[in-house]
Amino acid sequence: MIVKGANCVNRAGKMAGILIGHSEGGTIMKIMPAVIGRRTRLIIPVGLEKRVSDDIGDISALLNTPGSSGFRMMPVFGELITEIEAIRILYGLSARLVAGGGVSGAEGAIWIVVEGEKELLRACESNLRAICLEPQFAL
Predict the structure, then answer these.
(1) For a tag on the chain, would you pick the N or C end, based on fewer CB atoms within 10 A?
(2) What pTM, to 2 d.p., does this model score?
(3) CA-to-CA distance for 23 and 91, rounded, in angstroms?
(4) How far is CA 10 from CA 16, 28, 41, in A?
């Protein structure tokens, strides 16, 4: 099993995009022989704040055009794990993205509706509240 984060995700297209800054393809190119050649499971945890509506193959083609500058992108298939899948896996609950964004520290936030059994909802809410109370990351 290999776990590799992503820079963008299109859940409808079931694809992630990974930015590449190194001329030899970066870490994603190093792991692809194992993923494809040895059929190693690739798990891609990626936050919904990185969602894009355009086709990731099209985005990659644009960024990888000869003569372009800046990062390149590798479109990748794998087991996408967003907050929605994490809630399903950890609590057995159904979650849906309903909105995004905010102010005063909620920039980039996601708003989800979670449905299911009351007891499971309580456990999920308790854990999510604890995560939300963690201090902001600072450089």
Answers:
(1) C
(2) 0.86
(3) 41
(4) 6, 18, 19
